[in-house]
Design a protein that fits this description.
Strand order of the largest sheet: 1-6-7-8-9-10-11
Structural class: alpha/beta
Oligomer: single chain
Radius of gyration: 34 Å
Helix content: 40-55%
Shape: globular
Distance between the termini: 86 Å
Number of helices: 36
Length: 978
């Protein structure tokens, strides 16, 4: 047999037939109605024989054509998935077109499901107007099309890319078979990789990867039993699996823009990692029931909202030992901006929307649980307050708790509140035997992970706490490590092109400035703090903000909008460190856009009201529209740039974001989450760009390297270190065991505050008596470390120590009363003694940040012994400025006098003598004259190249210097001619 496309086609059909498919005949396909009439008739005859004659299926009559036309119209209106799920009404009849997966023990449902006909047809001639056109394979369920396939073979030097091009070039979306909602997916397949598209749009068709992944990256693993891609037809499209996809995953989702009222529809089909992840979770629930913990590490931009939606609605029906595994599913999201979006996504996948409720006020969650609502959605910010009103009468109920972006949401106090609310025990009013010890033991139990709940934590960037709390423990050598339950890595997502590599074009911007002393004397200041203050002063100055705004606007105009990024629809984001700086950037960018007569505008995003030049300003007052409209407005012209401070940096999914300008220090998870706003894919998006004023490539590489592949916890937190911490704390003699016991009894006895404060104040007095400042810092640091670590470990330890619970309760109330150790700021006043002499910013070459191709191990939660006072290093102001200027100084010219003469005399004279520029100055306005001036300056600088390569290099490479020189020469020459 030759290893060509035909042989691959034969192999696929044979293996599908082995898995339960039947081979259809091309002649049975009714092109005008896009149905396999023979398969449809056979299905109805087997399951609803009374309808065969009524629908005229036996012969070609107007009655049959009317019925087929009715099916075709319903599919056009609602999509094939909806028609399969619900059937259709036709005249006096209800016609079932698919029977779902039976529940265990339901014999009749099993018989009906077995009557479904899964057929695959080779070389299907699909076109009415061009009968000779055929595609390789088409799959049908009960005669209705669900998938098409174009097959290619690497051996004949054709790949899935050729299949994709064939769909885009040769498969007309106006053909009925290729219309929106008709098929669940169109597959481009070769013997190594798979791509699929849910909506054919000619050249705009967007094909997504459907590979299993290999070595944490793109592609598929070698298959010792066959082709690398045979999982597609042997596993994913096996009849039982495809039925499950039809019933629980595939969907047409319609969204409406609340402001414009416009609706858009999208056909949803799961990616392989989504389907695999959700199915593995459900299988584990079916095996192990309630009380489990799962960590899902799926890359940012990988479709976690859909994965959570699919998991949520299937958990409501998940079975363990033939009984429902859970009574309620609670979805807790950390992403405020996606709160309502996640609710809408989950509702869109449910056939019964009434099972979903959104809890955002006290009492909502309790009422939802008591009313039997199956899916309850809230935010982690609201969750602790909502829990206060639940009570604790739910130990007999079982919960699935899904945590979206699990970071702060898995913290000890929130976990304790969840446990107390959903599984704790109230003290009976008449329980006379109830003691403080009972109270302490209940508090210990309330911190434990609930035995009547399972936790499903989703994140792209798991921290050490997240891994230890939700990850799978395993032993390697002498260490107990933790890993995620399921992964879809940043490496795979990037290599597949499902997300854009935000590190492909990273451009750091170096700032150079010179500061001068404005006082005669030479006072001393703390070196480190002074340098930090100086840099903040310089970078936040009006001059620096204005210069950086020029760079941003120039880059946006020439490199983003000018180069038609994302088909001319690209947007940009400016990330500032603090809200006042974001407001300053907004004004500077707006002024610069006006200065260059740009038709585009900026939007600013921040929380609350703030002072700006004596006025109270907010998002709405600066933008001219409500805050809630920002996500929609930024997608519409004239808005092209979003300026933000601590908003829209996490959980904001906007595929049109292409470029980010960063002017704040980023590290760790925050760096990954912030830059990952750019990674959302779009059919016309081929790259992303980061211009960074504040971070080095090394800083960003360090942050991203933890999450490029699977993240593993190197070892578990050692609970014995809590014993060591307690021993350290007690060496300071601030309290006694009797003090802790007394406070605990008073507190749990509900006494008034005037009885508690004296106990704590006596300890504060002892703290103030400590002779050494280092001792105060040491005690307070160790106390904080103990409470932080205990709050975390208490949920994980199989045992609980009442003395630790008492000490934690005591310290949590003592710590806020301890005054901070006296720390004089030895840099105060330095800004009054200096001035900014010069400032410039210089872009370096764009670079690709390459990440190490290996799993990252992160250390467990640190359990320190306390803090210590940082010794100050004092220097004279002149020495500090000298060091600072050496680090951030101006251009070092080799012949400064000659360069000054060129800039101030020779270049302006030669530009002024340019004939074209002279004509423009005589006959045109200032703006047109400036255009001709810049051309003349370019010509002069080319001649300078022959004599002064150093000056020309700065003019060519240094945007700041080029703008300054152009402005200076134009002002000199134009004003002189006026």
């Amino acid at each position: 047999m030759r290893l060509n496309e035909e042989s691959l086609e034969t192999l696929v059909v044979r293996q599908m037939a082995e898995g339960g498919w039947v081979e259809g005949a091309p002649g049975d396909y009714e092109r005008s109605f896009a149905v396999d009439l023979a398969q449809l008739t056979a299905f109805i005859d087997a399951t609803q024989p009374q309808l065969v004659d009524a629908l005229g299926l036996a012969t070609d009559t107007p009655v049959r054509r009317e019925f087929l036309s009715r099916i075709q119209g319903e599919i056009t209106s609602k999509g094939t998935v909806e028609v399969l799920r619900k059937g259709i009404k036709h005249r006096a009849h209800h016609v079932d077109l698919f029977f779902p997966t039976p529940s265990p023990g339901n014999t009749r449902a099993a018989e009906l499901f077995g009557a479904n006909r899964f057929s695959v047809t080779r070389q299907l001639q699909y076109s009415v107007s061009r009968p000779g056109l055929a595609l390789d394979l088409a799959a049908f369920v009960n005669g209705l099309p669900v998938a098409t396939f174009e097959l290619k073979n690497n051996i004949t030097k054709q790949t899935f890319d050729d299949a994709v091009e064939q769909y885009k070039r040769d498969r007309d979306p106006r053909e009925l078979l290729f219309g929106f909602g008709r098929c669940l997916a169109h597959f481009a397949v070769d013997d190594a990789q798979v791509r699929f598209c849910t909506h054919l749009k000619g050249k705009s068709s967007w094909f997504l990867p459907f590979d299993k992944g290999w070595n944490d990256g793109a592609g598929n693993p070698p298959n010792p039993d066959g082709l690398r891609t045979d999982y597609l037809w042997r596993e994913i499209l096996a009849p039982a699996s495809l039925a499950n996809i039809i019933e629980n995953y595939a969907q047409i989702v319609t969204t409406r823009n609340e402001r414009t009222r416009r609706k858009t529809s999208a056909q949803i089909f799961p990616r392989h990692h989504q389907l695999d992840g959700v199915r593995r979770l459900l299988a584990d629930v079916a095996t192990n029931g309630v009380g489990q913990k799962y960590l899902v590490q799926h890359s940012a931009g990988s479709g976690k909202s859909n994965s959570i939606a699919w998991l949520s609605h299937q958990l409501t029906e998940a079975k363990h030992h033939r009984a429902n595994a859970f009574d309620s599913v609670i979805v807790v999201t950390d992403r405020v901006i996606l709160d309502s979006q996640l609710t809408a996504t989950i509702k869109s996948f449910l056939q019964v929307g009434a099972t979903v409720v959104h809890a955002d006020r006290s009492g909502d969650l309790r009422r939802a649980i008591e009313a039997g609502r199956r899916i309850i959605i809230t935010t982690v910010q609201k969750f602790p307050f909502i829990l206060d009103d639940i009570g604790s009468g739910h130990r007999d109920r079982r919960f699935a708790i899904i945590i979206d972006e699990a970071h702060s949401s898995q913290g000890g106090k929130t976990a304790a509140a969840v446990s107390a609310a959903l599984g704790g025990r109230d003290r009976e009013e008449d329980d006379e035997e109830w003691t403080v010890e009972d109270e302490i033991n209940q508090m210990i139990e309330s911190r434990k992970m609930l035995s009547n709940a399972s936790y499903f934590a989703f994140t792209a960037t798991p921290k050490n706490k997240t891994l230890e709390m939700f990850g799978i423990p395993y032993v390697e050598g002498t260490e107990t490590k933790h890993r995620p339950f399921h992964t879809y890595t940043m490496k795979q997502a990037t290599q597949e092109g499902f997300i854009v590599d935000v590190l492909e074009n990273f451009t750091p911007v170096e700032s150079y400035y010179r500061l001068v002393k404005t006082v005669e004397d030479d006072p001393e200041f703390d070196t480190k703090r002074a340098s930090k203050r100086l840099r903040a002063y310089v970078e936040g100055s009006d001059h620096a903000i204005g210069l950086k705004a020029e760079i941003i606007v120039d880059h946006l105009r020439t490199q983003v909008i000018g180069k038609q990024k994302i088909g001319g629809q690209a947007r940009a984001m400016v990330v500032a460190g603090k809200i006042p700086r974001a407001i300053e950037y907004f004004h500077a960018i707006r002024d610069q856009l006006e200065k260059v007569k740009s038709p585009y505008q900026a939007i600013v995003a921040f929380s609350g009201e703030h002072d700006y030049k004596g006025l109270k300003v907010s998002e709405a007052s600066l933008n001219g529209f409500p805050s809630k409209d920002i996500p929609d407005k930024i997608k519409e012209d004239p808005y092209r740039i979003l300026v933000t401070a601590d908003k829209f940096q996490t959980g904001y999914d906007e595929p049109l974001l292409h470029t980010m300008y960063v002017d704040t220090t980023l590290s760790g998870v925050k760096a990954v989450q912030t830059l990952s706003r750019l990674n959302r894919a779009h059919p016309a998006k081929h790259d992303a760009f980061v211009l960074d004023f504040a971070n080095s490539a090394e800083d960003i590489e360090k942050a991203f390297s933890r999450y490029y592949r699977t993240t593993v916890l190197s070892s578990a937190t050692d609970p014995n270190k809590l014993h060591d911490l307690v021993a350290t704390i007690e060496t300071y003699g601030i309290y006694t065991h009797e003090t802790v016991d007394k406070f605990t009894e008073l507190f749990l006895g509900g006494v008034e505050r005037d009885q508690l404060d004296p106990v704590l104040d006596a300890c504060v007095a002892e703290y103030l008596e400590l002779q050494e400042e280092d001792d105060q810092v040491g005690f307070k640091g160790a106390a904080k470390s103990f409470t932080r670590t205990y709050n975390f470990l208490a949920a994980l330890l199989p045992y609980g120590l009442p003395e630790w619970e008492r000490l934690c309760l005591f310290l949590e109330h003592l710590i806020p009363k301890l005054p901070a150790p006296r720390e004089d700021d030895q840099s105060a006043g330095i800004l009054e003694n200096i001035d900014l002499d010069s400032y410039r910013s210089e872009k370096r070459e764009a670079m690709k940040i390459a990440l190490a191709d290996e799993d990252a191990e992160i250390d467990p939660v640190p359990v320190g012994s306390g803090g210590h006072v940082i010794d100050e290093e004092k220097e004279r102001l002149s020495e500090i400025l000298n060091t600072f200027n050496q680090l951030f100084g101006n251009i070092e010219w080799t012949d400064e006098d000659r360069v000054k003469r060129l800039i101030t005399e020779d270049i302006p004279r030669r530009v002024a003598e340019d004939e074209a520029y002279q004509i423009a100055m005589r006959n045109n306005d200032r703006d047109n004259a400036r255009i001709e001036h810049d051309r003349a300056l370019g010509r002069v600088m080319m001649s300078v190249l022959r004599d002064d390569t150093e000056l020309f290099k700065q003019f060519s490479d240094n945007d700041s210097f080029k703008r300054w020189l152009a402005e200076s020469v134009f002002r000199t020459t134009y004003d002189a001619s006026a």
